[in-house]
Amino acid sequence: GDIADPAMAERAVAGCDVVLHQAAIPSVPRSIEDPIGTHRANVDGTVSLLTAAKSAGVKRVVFAGSSSVYGNAAVLPKREDMRPHPLTPYALQKLISEQYCQLFTSLYGLETVTTRYFNVFGPRQQPGSPYSGVISLFIDAFSKGQTPTIYGDGKQTRDFTYVADVVSGVLRAAEAPGVSGEVINVAVGGRISLLELVRTLQVIFKAPLEPAFRPERAGDVRDSQADIAKARRLLGYEPQVTFEEGLRKTVEWYRAAR
Hints:
Blueprint: H1 6-13, E1 18-21, H2 28-33, H3 35-56, E2 60-66, H4 89-108, E3 111-117, E4 120-121, H5 134-143, E5 149-151, E6 157-158, E7 161-162, H6 163-175, E8 183-186, E9 192-193, H7 194-205, E10 212-214, H8 229-235, H9 243-257
Parallel strand pairs: 1-2, 2-3, 3-8, 4-7, 5-10
Antiparallel strand pairs: 6-9
Helix pairs in contact: 1-3, 3-4, 5-7, 5-9
């Protein structure tokens, strides 16, 4: 169903104590191409879901926020108290949605928590779309013996976070006391360049494939790294899976799935 449809949202949350709001069109390029359609899914869908949750007596909504709201902040790591600077419709839509969450908390008393994600990766992430995450696209290319494509110089960095760690943070946000209305980074707190990603995949696949470079894409953030002190303090959160370990697990899943 479509969560922007109020009747569908009401059915989805009926009887729920906690709602984990993961629904979105999570693509920067697609939001640039289709700001109206992505706004409907990402903002209207969030308002629809929050309204349904309030009416159904849901205790807490945990919203999947995005590190894209920080934009190209000059300071690293990125903290939750920094002024947002969204560069794309997707980033703005995520910011508006987390502000709607806080509004529903202050105005209606609905408990909400926003967990800001930073480049989540892991098994079951599908590579079959140009909007897919860079890791799934690179794994797909390496598995086929094809050249991975990097937009830019490859020195841009990301706080790649294995999906199991993100799940841990979300579940903690669903249960932790005293965090209603908060926005919390859920990530690793490190930085990996796209060139380092390629080198690691070269080792895992035992393949010396070199990337092809293309011009930078509009709206791409140069560097991303989370400050996770707040998650540690409020949620008792601690990432458990290293980048290389998570990458190997993802490659293993991909090989088995193929």
